[in-house]
Design goal:
This protein is of the alpha/beta class. 51% of the residues lie in helices and 7% in strands. A five-stranded parallel sheet has the order 2-1-3-4-5, sandwiched between helices. Helix 2 (43-53) runs parallel beside helix 3 (69-79) and helix 6 (163-177) runs antiparallel to helix 7. The structure holds fe (ii) ion (FE2). Fe (ii) ion (FE2) binds at residues 195-196, 224, 248-249. Fe (ii) ion binds at residues 195-196, 224, 248-249.
Length: 334
């Protein structure tokens, strides 16, 4: 997981070099720039300091005994993908330094260097961090707007209030139980929160009709996954949620919509969401019926395993703890 970016200017900096004279010269110079400086004389010490202080910028020598700057770079980026690593290298190893750029280093400077060059590299790394920070803020704000749209939609109807939050708590628990990695779990979390955002464009008279829908009205309802995709498509950071939104009403036997996909052709995240979505709908009261019990709902899910749902996921869902879909009063899945 990536650590939150809480400070960009001035960053604290970790300087790593096995040559004591270079280390102390850099420490003294960088401190005068107004940065908090941490120093380490080898890669292992650097890692320990990084784990505790999480400096956003690391300036490291390439050739060091024990752990080189290239290996340190890999270790640091595994801990925090946003850490900005500047490599210092002698002319003889410049090609190795160029290779570190492909491995995610932000920049390199060749020894012997003028200290102003170090200052410039730090400044550029800081600017880059600011960009990452503002981009993330923008993404969070966009997500909040979409979530607010879904919440408003749900709260217009007493029966559906909190639906997406509860469904998300279930899909979080299922993704964890399946052993999916943190990135996949994050995508499923986002997709679940906004899966019904396409209902925004559908008339309340159809959306909340207590009686049976006409074929025409049903066709309008069936358009909500595609409408949701249209809303989310311009937001690049939500790109990976598109298959979830588009396919959350597919059925395992191919009789769902919009594309009639079958079995494993339906994205796993969408198959997970379908089970959670249906469970929550059935265990909540609706205008046209009261809530079904947990046991009755499980029986129904099992009955439809293999036709509507992925049988493996129905069994997985059944084994989740009873409070897996619990949502706090603030609306945060627990
Ligand atoms: Fe839906």
């Amino acid at each position: 997981m990536t650590a939150p970016l809480t400070r960009t200017i001035p960053p604290s900096i970790l300087v790593v070099d096995d040559e004591p004279s270079i280390l102390s010269a850099l420490e003294c110079y960088i401190a005068k720039l107004g940065c908090h400086v941490l120093v380490a004389s080898d890669g292992f010490q650097a890692l320990e300091l990084f784990k505790v202080h999480r400096p956003p910028v690391v300036l490291t020598d390439l050739k060091m005994p024990g752990m080189g700057g290239d290996q340190l770079l890999q270790e640091l980026r595994a801990l925090d993908e946003n850490v900005q690593v500047i490599i210092m290298t002698g002319f003889a190893t410049i090609q190795s330094a160029v290779t570190t750029l492909k491995a995610g280093a932000f920049d390199y400077i060749t020894k012997p260097f003028r200290l102003e060059l170090v200052a410039r590299a730090i400044e550029k790394a800081t600017e880059h961090l600011e960009l990452i920070y503002y981009n993330r803020q923008l993404q969070e704000n966009s997500l909040h707007v979409l979530e607010a749209m879904v919440k408003t939609l749900e709260q217009r109807d007493y029966y559906t209030a909190g639906h997406s939050r509860r469904v998300t708590a279930f899909t979080d628990a299922m993704a964890l139980a399946l052993g999916l990695d943190s990135h996949q779990r994050h995508v499923i979390h986002l997709g679940s929160l906004i899966h019904d955002v396409g209902k925004i464009g559908i008339d309340d008279a159809i959306l909340r009709k207590p009686g049976r829908l006409t074929q025409e009205e049903y066709e309008v309802i069936k358009s909500h996954p595609a409408r949701g995709v249209n809303i989310v498509e311009p937001l690049n950071f939500l790109k990976e949620t598109i298959p979830i939104i588009r396919h959350h009403h597919e059925r395992f036997d191919g009789s769902g919509y919009p594309d009639g996909l079958t079995g494993d052709d339906i994205p796993l995240a969408a198959r997970i969401l379908t089970v959670a979505d249906t469970y929550d709908a059935m265990t909540s009261s609706r205008a046209y019926r009261t809530a079904l019990s947990r046991e009755t709902t499980f029986q129904e899910l099992r009955r439809c395993a293999g036709t509507q749902f992925d049988p493996m996921l129905v069994e997985l869902f059944r084994q989740l703890p009873e409070d897996a879909g619990h949502v706090s009063p603030q609306g945060t899945p627990q």
